[in-house]
Amino acid sequence: MEKFVWNVEALLKFPSVPECLVSENEIKLLTAEIERLKNFGCLGVSPSLEGLRDENAKLKYRLNFLKKSLQEERSKSVKSMININSCLQEIFGAAIQAAYPDLENPPLVVTPSQQPKFGDYQCNSAMGISQILLKTREQKVIPREIAEKIAKNIPANECIEKVEIAGPGFINVHLRKDFVSKQLSSLLINGVQLPAVGKRKKVVVDFSSPNIAKEMHVGHLRSTIIGESMCRLFEFAGHDVLRLNHLGDWGTQFGMLIAHLQDKFPDYLTVSPPIGDLQAFYKESKRRFDTEEEFKKRAYQCVVLLQSKNPDFIKAWNLICDVSRKEFQKIYNCLDITIIERGESFYHEMMKDIVKEFEDKGFVQVDDGRKIVFVPGFPVPLTIMKSDGGYTYDTSDLAALKHRLCEEKGDILIYVVDSGQSVHLQTVFAAGQMIGWYDPKVTRVAHAAFGVVLGEDKKKFKTRSGDTVRLIDLLEEGLKRAMDKLKDKERDKVLTPEELKAAQTSVAFGCIKYADLSHNRLNDYVFSFDKMLDDRGNTAAYLLYAFTRIRAIARLANIDEQMLRKAAREEVLVLDHEKEWKLGKCILRFPEILQKILEDLLLHTLCDYLYELATTFTEFYDSCYCVEKDRQTGQIVKVNMWRLLLCEATATVMAKGFDILGIKPVQKM
Ligand code: ARG
């Protein structure tokens, strides 16, 4: 994947040729060109004065455009947060380059240090370089020596206070206090802004994607929650995100549903049938399909008529889809999900061409009447046409892939789908490469897979009676449990009914989302209301309480937002206390965390980080007075403003983190 340009400011300071300088050079050239053309025109010797004037105008336009983008880029880089890790990587990259100019692709490893005695960050490249020197040049150099050489070549920069060589060859980096302090002030003044992303990309995210007439189950809930956060993250990073609901709305089940509808509600063309429970309706039609020969025949005819777009059948199909759609929307409303519907049916017209394209390029084999495509590396072929001429899940996914690549011009496609469909998706992606729709070096097509949701008994998530759990019931139960919890903590005695209700919704839906997001999506995960509502440990309940408390600190000291804003501009954030220093650095790791997730799509890293931030904050709050009070009277005697600013910076980053996770804190809880 192309590397993001995270830190224009830092880049400007280093020897590599930054984009902005290219623009400046270009401007110089263009200016010279304009001057030349101007003179040319004045002399009146041009045979095509008009043409040159035109050219001149175009160049001026382009010059202005370049100037503007240069300015924008500059102001963005000043306001945005710095990714300290990549900043250090650039610095150490330059140092290694200077120390070992002819080493190709030397390993560049920079990580935050685990213990204060090892500094703030560590560069661990010396060990790797030592091995490379031994392997490629048969030079035996001990890593410590290499580390020293790297350290000597560190270019001038604004963030490193000093480095120390430790152990076999670690380079421990101590950051400059004034640098960290300045970054925190800038964060408070400008808000959380990520470093510029380079080219804005088109990102297509396929998520949620339940099936019409079938229950939207916990697997779909997982996809919905993870997908929504993924979209929010890419949007926050400045990309253009298309959120797609790949609804299963075109399968053969519609034949039996429509046939059943015709029997049950024959006047469906004029009156909207009251199918309250589409599940029961589906079950009944399925039973008839399996037991009544005549019905089965008619169901098949219905599929054919639907697929040939007969208006009456389209009407019936729409009615059925509408019932499901309304059910799905209830869930999306609760969880604040934004998504557009683009189900399998959307691609129906394209499927014929897809089959033809594979045939024309010689990839199709006929097997027992079916048209199949073998993809190198995958033992099971894709079936692109059934023997009865119908299309399959494979065909609609191939069509969707092509549409997303060629029509939507997606640079990054993400499929948030359960791990069970991994082979299917990988085969589809490989087929897309085989036929030349995309090059994985240019376009990123990723399956963001996730494991299954288990019940507390570690078995498939079911109700006590063994039925599948209806999502809407699950959300209802979450609400009820959240309210019980709030009442347990006697919050009903402190909060107004409106505040209590707001807290209930925030806790219930926040916890359900967070429980999912805080687990590595690749693992199976155990759904437990007790665990997710526990206000100790890495849960939304804990974080929401912590956040509300942090936000209240300044308020309780009678410091309003305006005063904080003023202080942010005027006060220096002192970071002398060990816990202030630890918290300050932790806050500034936010961009580094997000960048990692943009690459590996593992959102639990953000949850882990927010939890670390909250506990680091608690350590700070426990040992550093923000507001000093008279022991007897309880009156405020001193406000340590720089510490309130640290509280504020913590809350600002937490709020942004919540926003990406789709968690909505409330003012009081
Ligand atoms: N409707 C499918 C299911 O419920 C999920 C679709 C996922 N997206 C895709 N492009 N295949 O299993």
From TrEMBL:
The keyword Protein biosynthesis applies. PROSITE patterns: AA_TRNA_LIGASE_I. Residues 49-76 form a coiled coil. Its EC number is 6.1.1.19. Residues 86-175 form the Arginyl tRNA synthetase N-terminal domain. GO terms for cellular component: aminoacyl-tRNA synthetase multienzyme complex; cytosol. Keywords: Aminoacyl-tRNA synthetase, ATP-binding, Coiled coil, Cytoplasm, Ligase, Nucleotide-binding, Protein biosynthesis. Its main location: cytoplasm. SMART domains: Arg_tRNA_synt_N (SM01016), DALR_1 (SM00836). GO terms for biological process: arginyl-tRNA aminoacylation. One of its GO terms (molecular function) is arginine-tRNA ligase activity. It is an enzyme of class 6 (ligase). InterPro entries: aa-tRNA-synth_I_CS (IPR001412), Arg-tRNA-ligase (IPR001278), Arg-tRNA-synth_N (IPR005148), Arg-tRNA-synth_N_sf (IPR036695), ArgRS_core (IPR035684), DALR_anticod-bd (IPR008909), Rossmann-like_a/b/a_fold (IPR014729), tRNAsynth_Ia_anticodon-bd (IPR009080). It comes from the Eukaryota. It is found in: Cytoplasm, Cytosol. The keyword Repressor does not apply. Residues 543-669 form the DALR anticodon binding domain. It catalyses: tRNA(Arg) + L-arginine + ATP = L-arginyl-tRNA(Arg) + AMP + diphosphate. Belongs to the class-I aminoacyl-tRNA synthetase family. This is Arginine--tRNA ligase, cytoplasmic. It comes from Zosterops lateralis melanops.
